[in-house]
Amino acid sequence: DQIEAPRRIRALHEDVVNKIAAGEIIVAPVHALKELIENAVDAGSTSLEILVKDGGLKLLQITDNGCGINKDDMAIPCERFTTSKLKAFEDLTSIGTYGFRGEALASISHTAHLTVTTKMADSSCAWKAQYAGGKLAPAKPGQSADPKACAGRQGTQITVEDLFYNVPTRRRAFRSASEEYAKIADQVGRYAVHCKGVAFQCKKHGDAGAGIAVPATATVKDRIRIVHSSAIANELIAFELSNAQYGFKTEGLVSNANYSGKRTALLLFINHRSVESNAIKRAVEQTYSTFLPKGGKPFVYLSLEIDPARVDVNVHPTKREVNFLNEEEIIELICDDIRTRLGKVDTSRTFMTQS
Ligand code: ADP
Ligand code: MG
């Protein structure tokens, strides 16, 4: 019998560590796309064009008209923890932009073929580079990995191909491309409603139809009409609320008592990032329950701005869960306000039908 060698603790190879970290941030194509949308909006873009093939697994491409990336910085944006938006941990409390950890592009480059084409306003040409494992990589074996000059408009185009090509188990876990596309369209739709002044286009490769198409000039109500429906857009109440004690302000559009959906649509933005909150969802459903027929659900678009010092955005690598101070009190104030506005609309209706 062979005696097993005593087990030793060994450090994982850096590549493996990076791949694991990437897998926690990018679980599905929609997570990569969300990061890319946020980057494009951070870059001051007024137009975002998104192209999707096979639910994003074959191709995710996003073209913006933002500030572009400096050619001299092109070697590093895909290394972990490189960012133009944060210099020290202390900055986390005062960060205003969407991104802050510099992990998105790195994660994507560890688990997909990534190409960046970018042009700044004052550059005479665009620059194109490929990345693999967080570093510049040659387009073909034997070629130089340096960025290559090419023609292009101002802005940045990010192309993500063959997502999870090197994680076969993850890749196999996706059964349906249309399911993944639905998640992508949902997320694009959220930003298309929220980002005033920004045009959005989202297309499935090979589809003749327009997909999502929102012009830059569309109002929030128009955006809801385009992304969702007229049935919702025609029955909206605007609301606005701020509170110094808890350091927040909020605005949004919510459906009135004439609209009753099958499922709650909650478009929630905290400090301009699309997030989820079951606590807020439960509270608004409770608020609407007295106004809607049994089982009827509202449409709620809520943009909440909270003093960044009160928000903990650093809890989860995916940034989908956001915690903030006085969460219960803030939710209650918002729901009280919605309840009052719903009540007002109701009485005026009764009054109108009576007269
Ligand atoms: P973060 O957004 O947290 O800084 P990312 O990995 O998402 O980290 O991006 C790294 C850096 O690459 C950004 O800080 C930004 O300087 C640059 N960048 C990424 N996408 C774009 C874009 N669409 N336009 C301009 N710069 C970009
Ligand atoms: Mg980012």
From TrEMBL:
TM stretches of this protein: none
Domain DNA mismatch repair protein S5: 224-343
Subcellular location: Nucleus
Family: Belongs to the DNA mismatch repair MutL/HexB family.
Name this protein carries in UniProt: DNA mismatch repair protein S5 domain-containing protein
